[in-house]
Design brief:
Layout: H1 10-21, H2 25-60, H3 66-114, H4 118-123, H5 126-168, H6 170-217, H7 219-224, H8 228-281, H9 288-293, H10 302-343, E1 355-361, E2 367-369, E3 377-382, E4 388-392, E5 397-407, E6 410-420, E7 425-430, H11 436-443, E8 451-456, E9 459-460, H12 466-471, E10 473-476, E11 485-486, H13 487-492, H14 500-509, H15 513-517, E12 526-527, H16 536-550, E13 554-558, H17 566-580, E14 584-588, E15 600-605, E16 608-613, H18 615-621, H19 624-630
Parallel strand pairs: 7-14, 7-15, 10-13, 13-14
Antiparallel strand pairs: 1-2, 1-3, 3-4, 5-6, 5-8, 8-9, 11-12, 15-16
């Protein structure tokens, strides 16, 4: 169930960020709003004075007052012109502030997202995350560009009108205040209901967009299995929930405007009747102007009543304006809370201090750090006594009694121990869910182990900084991700400073050069939509070339050839064999033909290693691997 109200402090935090980002431009905006607000109030004052001159003119003749009326009209015109300039300046500056702030918020969100652990993305819908950058950000745009300025403008106008009313008539002001009390009660009664549903609407919208994104990515699967009707039913459930929340929110939100407007119209009539009654009965009018002139409690003037009709209309309109912004503010705070929830997610924890550096051998044969690229990588291991040792990166990976669980109480790995010496090829075989991919996720520290140890070149991987650890690892995954850009750009993704020649050499190693050369623009062919214009096998070949150009000492091949046909697999296997020379390689494969030449094969079942050995050893044992290889059992 979504939260019914935005967290306390969300608005304060949002305002604090806005002020810190634009502490010089916001004062300009405030001054412009203040000038524009006062400029909108002053015509009511001019109206009272002009009405007085008209009364005098009707009695004494127009020649006596025409000059004064013209002078007041000219002054009022100048005031309105200044207000217009201020309004124009405010609009231009707010455009810069609004879009600039949204730009910075998106950067904050994206920068924070880059530091989140894989677990967050595994447990959060991608469409829901996208909703943060679209719908939730858009609610902030409305808040900053419209709601806050309009509310501030209305607040200043209301304060100014209160001062004008106190100056001219406290009794008529009391009538307006009573009307405003009724309006506030209406806002409280109707607005609180709409606010609850506007918060729900934002959450429902995120769920619906997450489902749509999922269906778009899986459209082929939906059609292959004729799942359109079921997908439509699932979408209808989410869409109906969104409709219900949006309909309830807008039902109350749409009621608020007409209710406030009609209360304002009724108040207009009441002010007129009250003014006529005070004048007819000769009741005293108490005002600050009367107090200043010594006529406190003098008779109410007709010009004051006419001016108050305009003041009352302005007052109720601005109260209505504030009420109308209430829903936008609630939506924005709901969106801001979701954004802050993303920004407040705990970043990936990294307490490592061992780093990866370029090294060389000195005259004594010891490794020392080098500022130039030498082709030799070493672990820089600082110690508590101030000394530093350098261990050459060779790719020796060992697991000792490793236990792991994704969810508390649901263990995935049990007491797993294995070792991979430099240059060895270790294969994992087992049914889905046996824990094969989990082991590789632990090696690159996408997840941290519950118990046991993993050592890399004799160093506990918890001591190695994650960025440096992952820089030493290459991976070719079953699910290929290509990015918008050229084929060359996608290969270079493995090593951003790689030359074109290095990228081409990596493509040749992966046997991808042949099909790339036949593309319309060769290596400069643009890819989009995750390489939709390529076959699955071609996309996988580019992925393998990307790993090859990174030239890491340890490679993880997670079902790397599962999407490649048998003929292409033979070509890829040649390239892979060349790529794996001198490297430690972890292979996960369902095709047992791809693991025959492995130095060691680990057969996993329910998170435990039940068999280990070379292909020949395991065939001779006639255990689970033998049965899988001969077809007596099949991998699930």
């Amino acid at each position: 169930m979504p939260k019914q109200r935005a967290k306390k402090g969300t608005f304060t935090r949002l305002l604090r960020l806005l002020i810190s980002d634009y502490k010089w431009l916001l004062p300009v905006v405030l001054v412009c709003i203040a000038i524009n607000s006062v400029g909108n109030v002053l015509p009511s004052v001019f109206l009272k004075n002009i009405t007085d001159y008209i009364e005098i003119g009707l009695v004494s003749g127009w020649s006596a007052v025409s000059g004064d009326i013209v002078r007041l009209l000219v002054i009022m015109g100048c005031v309105l012109l200044v207000a217009l300039i201020s309004s124009f300046t405010h609009a231009r500056v707010m455009a810069v502030v609004t879009q600039g702030f949204l730009n910075k918020m998106r950067k904050r969100m994206f920068n924070g997202m880059q530091n989140l652990p894989i677990k967050y993305f595994d447990s959060t819908g991608h469409g829901d995350i996208m909703s943060y950058y679209t719908n939730d950000i858009d609610t902030l745009r409305q808040l900053i560009s419209q709601s806050l300025p309009n509310m501030l403008n209305s607040a200043i106008i209301l304060i100014s009108l209160v001062a004008v009313m106190l100056y001219y008539s406290m009794s008529l002001m009391l009538v307006i205040v009573l009307g405003v009390v009724v309006m506030v009660l209406a806002v409280k009664g109707i607005g609180s209901r709409s606010a609850r549903y506007f918060v729900r609407q934002q959450h429902s919208l995120g769920k619906a967009e997450g489902f749509i994104e999922e269906m778009m990515n899986g459209q082929k699967v939906v059609k292959v299995f004729c799942h359109e009707d079921e997908s439509l039913r699932d979408f209808d459930k989410l869409n109906d929930q969104l409709f219900h929340d949006a309909e309830q929110a807008n039902r109350y939100g749409n009621i608020l405007g007409p209710v406030m407007g009609n209360i304002g119209n009724l108040l207009y009539v009441i002010i007129a009747l009250a003014g006529i009654m005070v004048i007819s009965l000769g009741l005293p009018n108490y005002s600050l102007s009367g107090l200043a002139s010594g006529s406190f409690g003098a008779a109410l003037q007709l010009s004051v009543v006419i001016s108050f009709l305009n003041i009352g209309r302005q007052f109720t309109n601005n109260v209505n304006q504030i009420a109308q912004q209430f829903n936008s503010i609630v939506m924005a705070l709901a969106g801001a809370e979701r954004i802050f929830d993303l920004m407040d997610q705990q970043p990936e924890h990294d307490d490592g201090y061992v780093t990866l550096v370029n090294a060389k051998y000195d005259e004594s044969g010891e490794l020392v750090e080098c500022s130039e690229h030498t082709g030799i990588w070493a672990w820089c291991h600082p110690h508590g006594d101030g000394t530093v040792t350098y261990t050459r990166l060779t790719g020796d990976v060992r697991l000792f009694d490793v236990d792991f669980e994704y969810e508390k109480g649901k263990p995935v790995l049990h007491d797993v121990s294995l070792w991979a010496e430099p240059g060895q090829k270790i294969a994992f075989v087992g049914s889905t869910g046996a824990g094969k991919t989990t082991i590789t996720n632990l090696i690159n520290r996408f997840y941290d182990i519950e118990d046991g140890k993993i050592r890399y070149d004799g160093i506990n991987i918890n001591k190695i900084k994650k960025a440096d650890l992952r820089r030493s690892l290459g991976a070719v995954l079953q699910d290929v991700n290509l990015f918008t850009g050229t084929v060359m750009d996608n290969i270079r993704y493995g090593k951003l400073d790689a030359t074109d020649e290095e990228c081409i050499a990596a493509a040749k190693l992966a046997n991808a050069d042949d099909f790339i050369s036949r593309l319309p623009q060769g290596y400069n062919t643009m890819l989009a939509s995750n390489g939709a214009n390529l076959s699955q096998g071609q996309r996988q070949l580019i992925s393998i070339a990307r790993a090859a150009v990174a030239d890491p000492p340890v490679m993880i091949m997670d079902e790397a050839t599962s999407s490649i046909d048998t003929r292409t697999e033979a070509l890829v296997q040649q390239g892979m064999d060349a790529l794996m020379k001198g490297r430690t390689v972890f292979v996960i494969a369902h095709r047992l033909s791809t693991v025959r030449n492995s130095d060691a094969i680990m057969v996993l079942e329910h998170g435990r290693i039940i068999e280990r050995g070379s292909h020949d050893d395991l065939i001779e044992k006639r255990g689970t691997y033998y049965q899988l290889y001969t077809g007596a059992f099949e991998l699930e």
